Amino acid sequence: MDAVILAGGLGTRLKPFTDIIPKPLLPLGEKSLMEIQIEHLKKCGFNNIYIAVNYKSDYIKAFFGDGSKYGVNIYYSEEEKPLGTAGPLKLLEKKLLDPFLVINGDILTNFDLRKIYEFSLNYPESPLTLGTKIITTPFRFGKIYSEGDIVKDIEEKPELKFEILAGIYIMKPKIFEYIPYNEYFGIDLLIKKLLSKNIQVTKYIINDYWIDIGVVEDYSKAKELYENMKNN
Prior knowledge:
Elements: E1 2-7, E2 27-28, E3 31-32, H1 33-43, E4 48-53, H2 57-64, E5 73-78, H3 87-90, E6 100-104, E7 107-109, H4 113-120, E8 128-138, E9 143-147, E10 150-155, E11 159-171, H5 187-196, E12 201-205, E13 210-212, H6 216-231
Parallel strand pairs: 1-4, 1-6, 4-5, 8-12
Antiparallel strand pairs: 2-3, 6-11, 7-13, 8-11, 9-10
């Protein structure tokens, strides 16, 4: 099976770490984030891995090579200019001829990625399946319930629940019809484009361990969580 790792971002929210090395090579214990991703992809049956690179791409290519030391085939797709999260996929149109997985290069998870892949095959008409995650965010104010001027109840610091994009997708080759060539184009815009054309988009809720290493605080948390996940 084929997978694409989106690793072309500048990692600006993780400065100063990313001034020196690209975000996918940031260490979590004795391994880098992308090493952990690649090993997990292999475990889940994804043996052909395309890495979409841009910022400090030479570092990434030198580090991972052809993937033989990880038991997978690694190929590189290098942007000449930033193309967003969906734009780089268009460069792989002639290579990705079967359903394929796309994962952001800053996602750490132990979710069995075969599950979302197999789920997507149940919807042959849907060119895109979104991995989603329910997150709970504490609200720091008390919420008032009232009718006119009369207070009826109060809820102290309620928790807010949101279903978010988890940075994991399954796409079918038909998706390329909706991605412009050599233009900056995000997956958010791709989703809206499909919905505007009444094209079916499906979702799969991920209940397993998952973290987006987007900012310094999340990176520090991920290092701790990864060590705990490894030891359990």
